[in-house]
Amino acid sequence: MKRLFSGALVTMVVASSLLAACGSDTTKTGDASAAPATEAAQEVSLTMGSWRTEDTEAYSKIIAEFKKSNPNINIQFNPVKNTEYNTTLNTSLQSGSGPDIIHLRPYAAGAALADAGYLEPLDTLKGMDVFTKDTLLAATGTDGKVYGVPTVFSSTQVFYNKQIFEKYKLQEPKTWDELLKIADTLKQNKVTPLAFGSKEAWILSLTQGTLAPSEYGTDFINKILSGEATFKSPEFVSSIKMLKDLTPYFPDNYIGLGMDDMRNMFVTEQAAMMVMGDWEYAVMKKTNPDLQMDVFPIPPKKADGKPTVTTWVDGSFAVNAKSAHKAEALKFMEFLTTKEFGALAVNELQKPSTIPGIVANDPLVAKIAKNADTISTPYAAVVYFNKGNPTTKAALEKSIQGMYLDKLTPEQVAEEVQKSADTWFKSTK
């Protein structure tokens, strides 16, 4: 499957900690079949942590399907708000508890938990050979071991309201100028062109990562990785200026708006477009089943350029190294590697599966998955620059917030991002 990444891979350099043994659990690492038969017959309850509160219904169906073959294993899906998840999870793990099954943030965040010894390595888990090395990279520790089963890809593109587009005789744009003309037409007709808010920082790096390839192409990030360019290069500065230039098409009070507000504007048809990840499709469809929506990739600046969507492995599931029931948790990990789960993921979570060969029933999900397969570029802030203290991703988000508050210029945003990268990033040259 043609997915991430055409560029350089993430280099991880921190030594990992030894994993703690789990009480009386004598199960071999990654081998769910090693548990004694008497243990396997017992009724066991597992907890599953996640930041995906929106997916509660979907995971109830996924867990129910798993339970058909494992009737003695009960799994309770216990998500918390996405902005509170990292703190909640870290606090519980540091206290020696935490969920048995952990929804793992991708790349550097997941590697940090592995390095701290909180996760069980899964290299020998049955079924892991179904994933590509690039896919497994999202759940690989700095020691080179794999600590999570990647479940779905995420991609960001532009959602749009088909009825509003039809009303004003608008077509999916093929160039950036066409996109701006669409936005002008909508604004002239008193329709908010873009549902957007700068209150929640993650929305800003996601928006920049999605739109920026239109400005600097798909090779520029590779130049930063190799040392041929920096965040202060004109190409990156232009990508930040492009975000500033879009403000006339945002809601009047966008500075105070968050994700819930953005979603509400789109599903109630107050806004015609929204730059967002594919995970919102299922949420919006449930909120307004009558909403007629579609997606288009980010159009290039020039007619001969290539459209793009931005992709990454959205998350993996890992096993808590201190779980009292690792054998049962590992059985669920094996289930996550099957095509049975892949079909459930793509049709219940409404997202592209990490398992090759899975086709979605929903035409829009199938379109999203096809774009992710054929015209994707990595979400650089997550894949390559989510390190540092604070991370370079966080520096990007804070600086863009400052720009929207008229406290920083695009050039100053670029300087702040480069300043953060200089504290930890080493080019590959």
Q: What's the structural blueprint in terms of helices and strands?
A:
Layout: H1 37-41, E1 44-50, H2 56-69, E2 73-79, H3 82-94, E3 101-104, H4 108-115, H5 133-136, E4 149-161, H6 162-167, H7 176-188, E5 192-194, H8 201-216, H9 220-226, H10 234-245, H11 259-267, E6 271-277, H12 280-287, E7 293-296, E8 309-319, H13 326-335, H14 339-349, H15 363-374, E9 376-378, H16 380-383, H17 392-404, H18 410-422
Parallel strand pairs: 1-2, 1-3, 5-6, 8-9
Antiparallel strand pairs: 3-8, 4-6, 4-7, 4-8
Helix pairs in contact: 2-14, 8-10, 8-17, 10-18, 17-18
Protein name: Extracellular solute-binding protein
Keywords: Signal
Signal peptide: 1-20
Report on the structure:
- The protein is of the alpha/beta class and 429 residues long.
- It folds into 2 domains: 32-153 and 314-375, D-Maltodextrin-Binding Protein, domain 2 (3-Layer(aba) Sandwich), CATH 3.40.190; 155-311 and 379-422, Periplasmic binding protein-like II (D-Maltodextrin-Binding Protein, domain 2, 3-Layer(aba) Sandwich).
- It contains 18 helices and 9 strands.
- The chain has helices at residues 37-41, 56-69, 82-94, 108-115, 133-136, 162-167, 176-188, 201-216, 220-226, 234-245, 259-267, 280-287, 326-335, 339-349, 363-374, 380-383, 392-404, 410-422; strands at 44-50, 73-79, 101-104, 149-161, 192-194, 271-277, 293-296, 309-319, 376-378.
- Helix 2 (56-69) links the parallel strand 1 and strand 2 (73-79).
- It is globular.
- The two termini are 29 Å apart.
- InterPro entries: Bact_solute-bd_prot1 (IPR050490), SBP (IPR006059).
- This is Extracellular solute-binding protein.
- Residues 1-20 form the signal peptide.
- Keywords: Signal.
